[in-house]
Amino acid sequence: MSDPVALVVQRYGPDVTGGSETLARALAERLGAEGVSTTVFTTCARDYVTWRNELPAGEESVNGVTVRRFPVEEERDLAAFNRLGESLYDRPHTDDDERAWLRRQGPYVPRLVDALHEERDRFRAVLFFTYLYYPTVEGLRAAPERSILVPTTHDEPPLRFRLYGPLFAQARAFAFLTPAEEALVRSRFDVGARPALVAGMGVDDPTPADVDGFRGLNGLAGRYLLYAGRIDAGKGCADMLRYYDRYRARVEHPADLVLIGRLAMDEPAGEGVRCLGFVSEADKQAAFEGASVVVCPSAYESLSIALLEGFARGVPGLVNARSAVLKEHCLLARGGLYYEDGLEFTEALETLMADEALRLALGAGGRRHVARHYRWDVVMERYRALIAAVGSS
Fold this sequence. Notes:
Layout: E1 5-8, H1 19-33, E2 38-43, E3 58-62, E4 65-70, H2 78-88, H3 95-105, H4 110-119, E5 125-129, H5 134-142, E6 147-150, H6 164-170, E7 173-176, H7 179-188, E8 196-198, H8 211-218, E9 224-228, H9 237-250, E10 256-260, E11 273-277, H10 281-290, E12 293-296, H11 305-312, E13 317-320, H12 324-333, E14 336-339, H13 342-354, H14 356-373, H15 376-391
Parallel strand pairs: 1-2, 1-5, 2-4, 5-6, 6-7, 7-8, 9-10, 9-12, 10-11, 12-13, 13-14
Antiparallel strand pairs: 3-4
Helix pairs in contact: 2-3, 4-5, 5-6, 8-10, 9-13, 11-14, 12-14
């Protein structure tokens, strides 16, 4: 497979965090390592909140991948955008309202779309990451011929907007992250017999981690729960912190709660809560290795890299049951428990922390689940099959 391949993603770079961005970069670098000429069409933004241009426009090589950056033409006012969204969700509105919403959602990069349209014929396949944003909606419309949509979908109000109907109708193939995501898309859109695979995302094999060093550096003497990701009320963190307070009040020797990731809310300051912010990759791996449970409180997930990274190290999960994807991971893997509310959170956590045999059994199930479905060699084989399918059409 030597014909050029393009990837379209809203942000790109080794210092850019985010599930779809991480997946796009991992795929681009692995395709490049296999000898595929790979070009990424992306923006000059680092921050998804404002889409402010922080990186230089133009072309550069990043770990063997050609990256073409285009400037975002309108920064986003998140508060104003959220007010607009609330005025549309589940309320009567027009197609023009949705188009205005998409433009303000951003990142608004018409020059990226124009360049992709002009060059579309030279690529064997064009992979679009995340259904939600302007580069995917307008980019796929400009270059549908050999498109693969990686929608990273979860059940959220925008998915019900009419403007996304043509997007899912135009895509030539689909790469889903989980069976639950595929079922959601098929329930909303006519995928038909077009090529579609649950391709997933690879999880790197765990590397040795300095757990003692991590504990010593952060004053962690006992057992702890781990949350890894953006520390944000929108990710369920506010509810998690309330539920954790309830757990802590009921248990004689409660485990601490460690949070790692970018802080996007008021810094948590409750008893037993350790907010470490953004940490190095080595410290992140040590944090997973030393954890007793990985907590995933978000109701809106299309995969959850954090849960899978915990599974890979044999750490069970405690997840929000309102996320069909997270609940499905735990059921398929037999790798964790799930909760509907604060009472169930507390009871499930008490059970996990009190029953070491259960915790070890769930951890072993999670490890098998990752090995069976989320190894990179398995994932890359699926993406190569999709690229071959659209490339031959």
